[in-house]
Amino acid sequence: MKEQILSKVFPNSAGIDIGSEKIFIGIEGKEVKNFSTFTSDYLKTIEYLKENNIESVAMEATGVYWIALYDLLEQAGIKVFLVNPREVKNVPGRKSDVADCQWIQQLHSLGLLRPCFIPEDIIRQIRTYTRLRQDHISLATQHILHMQKALDLMNVKLHNVISEIVGKSGLRILRAIVSGNHDPIKLANLCDDSILRNKKDLVIASLKGNFRDELIFSLKQALDAYDFYQRQVLDCDKKIQALLELINQDKPNPPAITKAKHIRRNEPHIDNLHEHLFKLTGGKDPSQIVGLSDKSFLELIGETGLDLTKWKTAKHFTSWLCLSPTKHQSGKSNKKTKRKGHSKAGQIFRNAAYAIASSKYSALTAFYQRMKARKGKLAANKATARKIAVLYYNVMTKGIEYVEKGLNAYQQKLKEQQIMRLKKQAKHLGFQLITA
């Protein structure tokens, strides 16, 4: 019996192991060479690869160290395969940077490594700004908690009476307190009329407190920090708007634009955001899917790009999002296990699932509640997030217009399925089921 030898898919290839201070390059038939991680050394690395006629390289996605080198290699015209470290595990007992780059090169040359999804450059720019924007929002949220703590120490219970202390009414009152106005009646009059009509006396009672100097200073510090991060968010919005205008400048105007949804929290301050996104996708509007909005759609574009056909099916897409269980099959054993980890894009769909959990008229809400009763809150959230992701995939790849069926239609379909199942059980037991 002849021994089969694997043919090389990428003959002119190299493997790169990246660290914080050095990178190691493995080329077949050559000794491993290392370079420092300064930009000048990265340029020498590219020269070295071109001298050896390297057409493609593979490297692990190690932290953020790979990003700068990836960009330079891409600009130099060298095809880069960024691979998952879990797929490049070396032989036990042979762990070293030198052995790693040689092992990566060997696997890559035989076509045994799958590249990670990396969107085009303009999409990566949007991703950077949207992720940075979300980081600023998270940091601002911490300072909201600091404000609440300062108010509690003063025994000012404003945050127990109004829904948000960083809303228009809340911020006016906080700024007045910091400026030296501690009269409960005058502070209460800063609220909107809708609040005063319903609970003016309660607001006045909540604004009586112990206004000590050190506590007011704490409140001022937290308020200043919150304002700072809000300005940072606005700067990110300006950058995103400039990018959207750049991308859409040569695109034709789409057909009739759908109505934009109201964004409740952290709405991007981008002029005509809905129109920009509608034009960007050529008339596709996944923001109409329940749970999604223009804000979440913008974030998803940054994470997944515009071309979702890179995932063959919706199942491939949801698997990449870490929203589907993994399958382990060996012999007669065939079981599903929980997938470890989360993806940023998957978390957007999870947040969308949480957003619709309390809705009253959504079919997906009925599904969420049914799954929650059977398997718990976490499983229900993941299953609902997966359904939203499938709808998103279908809209972006096939142009399927999503129409919310509503709770009644979903419950009617569920009832029909239950009746059909009962009829089969009755027939199996020798009975006949008669519906009223």
Can you walk through the features of this model?
- Helix content is 53%, strand content 8%.
- By secondary structure, the chain is α/β, with parallel strands linked by helices.
- It has three domains: 13-109, Ribonuclease H-like superfamily/Ribonuclease H (Nucleotidyltransferase, domain 5, 2-Layer Sandwich), CATH 3.30.420; 123-241; 254-327 and 340-404, no CATH class.
- It has a five-stranded mixed β-sheet with strand order 3-2-1-4-5.
- β6 (326-330) and β7 form a beta hairpin.
- α4 runs antiparallel to α8 and α12 crosses α14 (377-398).
- The radius of gyration is 28 Å and the shape is globular.
- The model has no long low-confidence stretch (mean pLDDT 87).
Mean pLDDT: 87
What structural category arises from helix and sheet content? alpha/beta
Question: Could you list the spans in which at least 5 consecutive residues all have pLDDT below 50?
Answer: none
Q: How many extended strands?
A: 7
> How much β-strand is present in the residues?
5-15%
- Coarse shape: globular
Question: In the residues, how many domains can be counted?
Answer: 3
Q: Which sequence of strands runs across the widest sheet?
A: 3-2-1-4-5
The secondary-structure element order is: EEEHEHEHHHHHHHHHEEHHHH
What's the gyration radius in Å? 28 Å
Query: What is the terminal separation in angstroms?
Result: 71 Å
Largest sheet: 5 strands, mixed
Approximately how much helix is present in the residues?
40-55%
Number of helical elements: 15
